[in-house]
Structures are given as C-alpha cells and as structure tokens.
Amino acid sequence: MPIAFDTTGLQQQDPTTWLNPATGDRIGLQYFDLVPDLPAPLEDLPRLRHDLAVIYGEAGCLIEAHTLLLGGVPTLFQVLKLPIPNQPSGQVFVASFTVPRAGSSAVLQTQAVEGGMTGMREAVLAARVGFDRWLMPHPYAPQLKGRLPFHAGDDPRYDPEFADHPLSRVRAWAHHVIRTGTIDPRFAALPPFPGPSGAPQAPPSHPTQSPAPGAHAAQNPAPPAHAAPEPPAPADHAVSDSAVPAAQADPHHAASPAHAAPEPPAPAAVPPGPEVGATITTVVPGIPIGGYLPLWIGEECTFWRMNDPDEVLGLLAHGALARTALAENRFRDLVALDESSSTVILLNRHRSDDGGIAAGVTGLTRVSGHEASQGLTQDTLVEAFYWVGRVSAAAAERGECVTVEPGKHEGGLQEPYVMLVVQDYEGQRVAVVQTAPAPPADLPMWEGKQSMSGPATPESLATGGILAMYAMDTWGVHPLHMCLTFGPVPRLVRE
Question: What is the count of structural domains for the chain?
Fold first, then answer.
C-alpha cells in the first residue's frame, strides 16, 4: 500500500482494516487505480473546500478540509460528520487523508461512532457558547444548508475538554498520522494530480477498486469515494464490526459468519397482566431514571424497576397516553397499575379504531426507594434529562410545552419549575428554557440567567433537558420525585 502509518495498539482485521480495541474506532487504507474524483486541484483550496462542502452537505457536514504534506507528498485532509443511518440521534465522525496522483490515489481514514449518551458535547457547549451564536454559516460555503449544521461545538479548541468524544479521537489520530505517516517513494514519484478533467472515466476492471455510487462529484452530489466513506450501518452497540464503511468492506466475505445477520432475538416473555376482578389503580408516572420508574399512587411516590424500559420510554411523555388534569391547560400522563400482578397498563389517550384503550401492558418489579436511588448515577441522570430534552422536542411538534416540576405540585404553575418551550419568533422557531426561582450565579450553564433561548435545533432542545437537570439540582427535591407536565405553548420573555 502507498501509505504506511503507526499501527501500535491496533488489531488488524484484514489486509486493509484495523480496529482500535480500546475505542472501537476503525482505520481503513485503500488504493484506487482511477483518476481521483476530487472536484478541484489541491492548489485551488478555496474551490476545493467549497465544492466538497456542498457535496458532503447532502449527507452530513464537512467540518474542515486542508491541504498538507504527508510524507512530503501533497495531501487532502478532511474531517466530516454524518448521521448514523436509521437512528434518531448520533453521528459518525471521519478523518481522512487522500493522496491523489494523476491516475490513482490512496486514502487512509478513521471513523468513530457516537455511542451511549449522544450529543453531550453539543449540549454542554451550546449553553456555554450561547444558542444565538451556536449555529454558524459554513466557512467554505456560507449559503449552504446541509443535512447537518455547521456549529461552534466542532471547533478543535474544545477537543481537550472532551477527549473521549469521537470527533476529538479522530482528530488526535490524524495529528499522529501527520507526524509519523510515510508515503512509498514509488507512489510519490508518480505524476501529480492536475485536477478534474471533466471527461467521463471508464469503469474499473476490478470491483474492489471501484468507487461508491456517485463517486464523480462534479456529476452527482454524493460524497466522493476517494475522499471519505458512506456512513456505516447502525448497530446495536455503537462500537461493532458493522460500523465498517462500505468502501472498506470485502464483498467476497459478505456471506461469512462474521458478517452474517444476527439471529432474531427470542420473543420477550409476555407479562401475565391483570386477572379478572383485579383492582386497577390509575397512577401518575415520574421521570424514569436508570431503569426505574416512579409511580405516584395518590400522594405517595412508589418505585418500580421496569422489565422492558424501551416499551415504556417509547410511549411515556410522547402525547400518546391518557392524561389527568392538574388545572386548566396543565396535564400529566396517566397509567393503570395492577399491584397484584406487578403490571402497568399503558392507556391510550384516544380510543383505537376497534374501541380499545390499552396501548400495551408491561411488567414491573416494586423496589425500595433505596434501590431506585442506587440506580441514579451521574450517567443515568444525564441520560434521563437528555431524554427529557427529546420529549420536549416531540411536544413542540404537537404544539405543547413541557414543565419539569416536583411531583407534589398541584393546580397552577408554581415554583420551582423549568419550562421548555418552542415558539415562533420573527419567522423562526426558537427554543426557550425558563426557570424559577432564578438559579445562582455559579450554577453551571445557567450562570444566574432565568431564561435562555436560541434557534430550535436538536442540539438546543436536548440542552434544555440538561439545563433542567442543573436547575433541579438546586431545589432540594430528589430527581425521582420529579414529574413532567404538559400544556399549550405560552409566550415567554426571551433574554
């Protein structure tokens, strides 16, 4: 291969692919016996950056692109982000080195996939930078409206603070390659890449050397195959073999056991459900944290471990369940509990076509408050309130706001609370987070402000949940004693 790089600590998967076992990040090395499909010569960096930004804007966002010398040979270095296909959140970050010559090219790249809690870098930095300064025009193509936004949080100055973030990891790997990578002298001696000729190229003679569909960037706005990969297929875990980009996969091994589709999981046991004559109690759910669900039975807060958290989280707080009114225009979700069978019935807000009202039945296990509290860690708390941010985004789509408040609150709005609202302002959708009482000046993210606002983006809406978490921490109320209340969107004062 034309490029040599330091593989210390990496596990070689095949002749062109390596895995970092500590992070799950993948490195691929490819040689293309084709005229490079870059849209401009390396010497015309402004045009090259502009065209690549437009091309990648169809699929994600080009974060940065530079020309540099790798082993003394002119090289294109790029960093980009792409959404994980078929997943509601999470991104793939790719750093690549493309060494183009007149009739061929070599590409060395790494990719890191967000896993677990996604969006935390953006959530923390959006509040610090300010929502009004978060989204930025793309520096290479200011009029571009890409699939993913260009924002302040991808700036490399924040990498040391978020060293484990996949963007920080791919940049750190790239910096090491710049210092240590070498180029085969025979490849370096080939005639340099003069730039695109615009003439059609003959198809390659070998399928493993062919670019991905849409490789000719000037003719089809898709990522150039010689520049970076398509996003990987989603996986059950962010770090897995299925995260290898298509450009690195070996088609001859597609049917091997390592690449075969997993066996479908065995069907989950169906909870027994209430028996005939059982006593069913309607209860108000709190905020699920760490696999535990608080249920308010009257004024008593009880705690239950969820047998199937995904089923509960898929319906809870999404406007699908029955509701109880606290006051005019203030509502909470309502579910039905059968303590004798330890099951909860998720009641539809509206009857189905056949007249049914049950959205599902799921099993619970009652636990002590001590056990539920043991499940509350910094990670599970952040995950829970990041979920609150996503719930507020879903509420905004149906014209509602979300209030985070103690479960014992009844009647009208009262302190303490955090309200998450999306409203129209001068023709734009604006996310507003307002809290009372005013947080102390030294509280992280809030810094003494009583409300914050900015463009309504997935990042800013997720940040609203994290802002609620920090505000709540000053109220002296346990997180498991919090509830979500829904209502129409009010007009809030923007700071």
Answer: 2
